[in-house]
Amino acid sequence: MNTLLLAITAAALVTLAALLVFPRHDEETKVEEREDARVSPLLRGINYLLSDQPDRALQEMVQVARLRSEAADVYMALGEMFRSRGEYGRAVRIHQNLLARPDLPEPMRLQAHYALAVDFQAGGLLDRALKQYRKLLELAPDHVPALEASLRIREQSHEWLEAEALLSRLEQVKNTSYHLHRAFLFAQVAEQALRDGREEEAKDYAHRAIDLEPACAPAWFVLLDLALRRRDWDEADRIVHGLAERNREHFPLVLPHMMRHDDYYQERGRSCLMEIWQRAPDEELALSWIELVGERDADAAARLQCELGFQPENLRARLRLEAVFEKEGDRLFARAWRRQVTNYICEMCGVGVRELRWQCPQCHEWGTMHPQKGDIA
Ligand SMILES: [Zn+2]
């Protein structure tokens, strides 16, 4: 709604300014002002806007645009309004019509290209949006919003190397470094290569990610998976210790990778984890470990808890443990809680998610999700 209000207000102000600059040479209009075909829809539009009736305000603005067909700025604002109401087809038509005008001033042309691309993106037509951003970037290569939007689309489409190329352009234009972002993109390339069986490429990109950002956990996971595939257990141990040193916060996420290879876990991984735990015990490692073991065998999870000497110190930790040890026939309250609880919080925008994502689903920043700790808020 904010965008809609802004768009309507912008259109109203632009039109009002135009009418004030070019007033009518008719002194008898005071009384008949309501009849003035140019002013009335605008005033009515503002009135509807003030009385919180955006739909009717929009109708009036359509009328303004019809009466002042030369006013590209009114059309631009109208396009914004349609888009903010989810009427993407109408927004697209307005912006396409604008672009078809041969007399459209250059700055307005750039704006219309951008607006059209945003229409397509908002409507989920990502290919067409990308094409439109590309056209705009041919005209204005340093257009930061177009570069950022294209980057977002490439990331959404998992086209990581194309995303990385856009990131480089943004770095040049904004004269800044996005090494952390790049590290995560390389880690995604590595994951994709690993899934497709291109192991050398996976290894190469995982190392490139770690060189850029030593705490880039998903890149370490790729290296670990590669070592475990090769049954190179010494290397796997080195990787597990390497990650524990560099990113303790996300370290517990290594557990499923280790436990997927049960022979490694039983013979080497378990004692490797115990060593790390004894050197620096932490709640998240204990809980994640007990939970994972408990998925297969609650008795083994109880033995592990004993061996770790772990006692929960807050309600969240107690509930997580209870969820592991609740038995069928109990009310299963803790399990129900565990299924819907937020486990990670984004430090940038504050959004909470259950499953970790390296890129925040709300603000799209990379590596900003942290495990939720302590008592339940
Ligand atoms: Zn966020």
Description:
With 377 residues, this protein is an all-alpha fold. Among the domains are: 2-174, Serine Threonine Protein Phosphatase 5, Tetratricopeptide repeat, CATH 1.25.40; 342-377, no CATH class. 68% of the residues lie in helices and 2% in strands. The protein contains 20 helices and 3 strands. It has helices spanning 2-21, 29-32, 40-50, 54-67, 72-84, 88-99, 106-122, 126-139, 144-156, 160-174, 179-195, 199-212, 217-229, 233-246, 255-259, 262-279, 283-296, 298-308, 315-325, 333-340, and strands at residues 344-346, 352-353, 369-371. Strands 2-1-3 form a 3-stranded antiparallel β-sheet, with no helix packed on it. Strand 1 (344-346) and strand 2 form a beta hairpin. Helix 4 (54-67) packs antiparallel against helix 5 (72-84). It is elongated and about 80 Å long. It starts with a helix and ends in a 6-residue tail after the last strand.
List the helices and strands and how they pair.
Blueprint lengths: L1 H20 L7 H4 L7 H11 L3 H14 L4 H13 L3 H12 L6 H17 L3 H14 L4 H13 L3 H15 L4 H17 L3 H14 L4 H13 L3 H14 L8 H5 L2 H18 L3 H14 L1 H11 L6 H11 L7 H8 L3 E3 L5 E2 L15 E3 L6
Zinc ion binds next to loops.
| Strand composition percent | under 5%
Shape: elongated
User: Over the alpha carbons, how many angstroms does the gyration radius reach?
Assistant: 29 Å
User: How many separate helices?
Assistant: 20
- Topology as H/E string? HHHHHHHHHHHHHHHHHHHHEEE
Per DSSP E runs of 2 or more residues, the count of β-strands stands at 3
Helix percent reads 55-70%
Please state how the strands of the largest beta sheet are arranged side by side: 2-1-3
Structural class assignment = mainly alpha
Q: What compounds sit in this structure?
A: zinc ion
Tell me about the largest β-sheet: 3 strands, antiparallel
Low-pLDDT ranges = 19-31
CATH H-level name of one domain... which superfamily? Tetratricopeptide repeat domain
